[in-house]
Amino acid sequence: MMKKVVIIVVLMLLSIIITTTLSMSVSSTTTDTVAAVTYDERALLINGKRRVLISGSIHYPRSTPEMWPDLIQKSKEGGLDVIETYVFWNLHEPVRNQFDFQGRSDLVKFIKLVGEAGLYLHLRIGPYVCAEWNYGGFPLWLHFIPGIQFRTDNQPFKMEMQRFTTKIVQLMKQEKLYASQGGPIILSQIENEYGNIQSGYGSAAKSYINWSASMATSLDTGVPWVMCQQADAPDPIINTCNGFYCDQFTPNSNKKPKMWTENWSGWFLSFGGAVPHRPVEDLAFAVARFFQRGGTFQNYYMYHGGTNFGRSTGGPFIATSYDYDAPIDEYGLVRQPKWGHLKDLHKAIKLCEEALIATDPTSTSLGSNLEAHVYKTNSGVCAAFLANVGTQSDATVSFNGNSYHLPAWSVSILPDCKTVVFNTAKVNSQVVNAKLTSHSLEETSDSSGAFSSGWSWVDEPVGISKSNAITKPGLLEQINTTADVSDYLWYSLSTQIQGTEPFLKEGTKPVIHVESLGHALHAFINGKLAGDAERIIHV
Predict the structure, then answer these.
(1) How do beta strands 370-376 and 422-423 pair?
(2) 384 and 336 in one domain?
(3) What distance in Å separates the CA atoms of residue 470 and residue 464, rounded to the nearest whole number?
(4) Which of 93, 262, 281, 371 is catalytic?
(5) Where does a domain end: 360, 383, 411?
(6) In a domain, 15, yes or no
(7) Vertex 318, ends 312 and 324: CA angle to 5°?
(8) Secondary structure of residue 414 in the 3-state scheme
(9) Strand order of the sheet with strand 382-388?
(10) What pLDDT was estimated at residue 442?
């Protein structure tokens, strides 16, 4: 006869808190005087002059205020003109009508530091931001407003969205941070990648987008507004592209410039997953192709990724590191050769600016997978981009009577239509191999579990061993149950096997089959861990 055993299966569901579904400055960059920011079919205009602008994302709460000046300075030295950041609603209004703009939440301080460095700023208010951030940036209390439906033509949601957006705009105006007031903000964004999911909202999606655009422009910021991944963005909102490659993107009006708000410099890290890496040769190729084919505003997402402090990370198994393989790494150190190669690229693009802003390019085929784009003004200013979009073979091409070697998957930049000053596949910047050393935290801990280094740990009881365990039939709505005090919701089931059950044959052992792993599963026999498994999530 088999011994009596008690089998406990503990199923864990992670709270996936996202709501739906990555020394060169221009002398005219200044934030000391009032600037008129407009746009036409070629570019953004600052005080009536078209500009080629290179931007990079730095999210202020993903680094510390002590790091901000150095991050901004390194961005400027890397050739950026603009810093781009989201505004995180749940960070600033964790409790309804109680606002926090201190410490890592000091948005005003961050923007002023950007301005003091002589750079511009793109303020992406959202207020839905995604960004692998907890609940997509929405505060938890928003979830519990009666009758609310997020990101659709729903009056309770629109009231709260307008109230917060207005709060941020008024704060920026109060601090005189818009370019129209002499500040660094030259662009604002409303909503975020809504076009990717709007089909699920039916006809209400279009009315919501139109309302969002009208609401934003009514706030009279004096600078243009954009919507990313929103092909039907109504005038005067500029629709922009997000992705690894945006050279083939076309805005929805021939009166709007070609803009790229998210060029993914890498990708976010998932626990248990490989560390993402995007080769700088590919990243530089994508940037050069964008400007080759008519773009004039490009932003790296991210230029510095930083850290998901506390429980700010959102999404399935997103790690605390938000390094993103960015040109400036999680710790604020320049990542070579990525930072240096892109700096050289930016210099080459800026040498072409006069031609780029003057006219649209003319394109010529130089052979299979080979092409030239030429910008030439009536005064004779000329810049050319030669591209080999084939991935396998190098090529030699003839252009303007000269011969040029083009490595596979590369772009050469000729600011005078004659001399190659940069090729995206040829990396000349230094390579630095950083070495991280590990240190055992346990060796520095005392009996209380506190570390002399300032670190500490918490033992979180699993499943039915918790004091606040409850008994309910079926699955529960996770946020309603946890109120976001924990990322985890454990479901526990126990059963007793006597050994005399009719389905058991003499000498056989019971087998338990679980239909779903949730996100992770632990099985215990007589109180001892017998096995575990996790669900593989592809993101």
Answers:
(1) unpaired
(2) no
(3) 8
(4) 262
(5) 360
(6) no
(7) 95
(8) strand
(9) 362-367, 370-376, 382-388, 410-414, 422-423
(10) 57
Nearest to 429 by CA among 342, 341, 348, 349: 341
Query: What is the rounded distance in angstroms from the CA atom of residue 279 to the CA atom of residue 325?
Result: 9
One-character DSSP codes across 23-90: ----TT--SSS---EEE-SS-EEETTEEE-EEEEEE-GGGS-TTTHHHHHHHHHHTT-SEEEEE--HH
- Please tell me the distance from the alpha carbon of residue 28 to that of residue 45, in angstroms, as a whole number: 12
Listed in sequence order, the residues at least 6 apart from 435 whose beta carbon sits closer than 8 Å to its beta carbon are: none
Are 392 and 515 found together in one domain?
Answer: no
Whether 468 is in a domain gets the answer: no
What residue numbers bound the domain in which 383 lies? 363-423
Residues 253 and 400 in one domain: no
Do 338 and 415 belong together in one domain?
A: no
Distance CA 151, CA 538 (A): 25
Across the strands, what pairs with 58?
304
**3 state SS of 5:** strand
Residue 208 exposed, middle or buried by CB count within 10 Å (0-12, 13-18, 19+): buried
Q: Does residue 466 sit within a domain?
A: no
- What pLDDT shows up at residue 22? 32
Per-residue pLDDT, 472:
87
Q: Is 354 a catalytic residue?
A: no
Task: Kindly give the parts of the chain with pLDDT less than 70.
Answer: 1-32, 434, 436, 439-456, 458, 460-466, 517, 536-539
* Pairing of the two strands 44-46 and 37-39: antiparallel
- Report DSSP letters for 186-235, one per residue: EEEEES-SGGGTGGGGTTHHHHHHHHHHHHHHTT--SS-EEEET-TTPPT
Model confidence, pTM: 0.90
Is residue 151 domain-shared with residue 111, that is, in the same domain? yes
User: What is the pLDDT, as a whole number, of residue 16?
Assistant: 43
In this structure, the answer to whether residues 107 and 142 fall within a common structural domain is yes
The vertex-409 CA angle with 407 and 413, nearest 5°, equals: 70
Q: How many domains does the chain contain in total? A: 3
- Residue of 84, 93, 191, 193 with catalytic role: 193
Task: Work out the number of other CB atoms within 10 angstroms of the CB of residue 368.
Answer: 11
pLDDT in the model for residue 411: 98
Which pLDDT value is given to residue 18?
39
User: 507-516: long-range contacts (C-beta < 8 A, 24 or more apart)?
Assistant: 509/2, 510/5, 510/7, 512/7, 512/9, 514/9, 514/11, 516/11
Answer yes or no: do 133 and 275 share one domain. yes
For tokens 């192709």, what's the residue?
289
The identity of residue 424, as a single letter, is T
In a shared domain, residues 411 and 528: no
How high is the pLDDT of residue 525? 86
The question of whether 93 is a catalytic residue gets the answer: no
Helix, strand, coil % (nearest 5) of the chain?
A: 25, 25, 50
Cα–Cα distances in Å, from 314 out to 16, 106, 132, 149, 270? 6, 21, 5, 20, 11
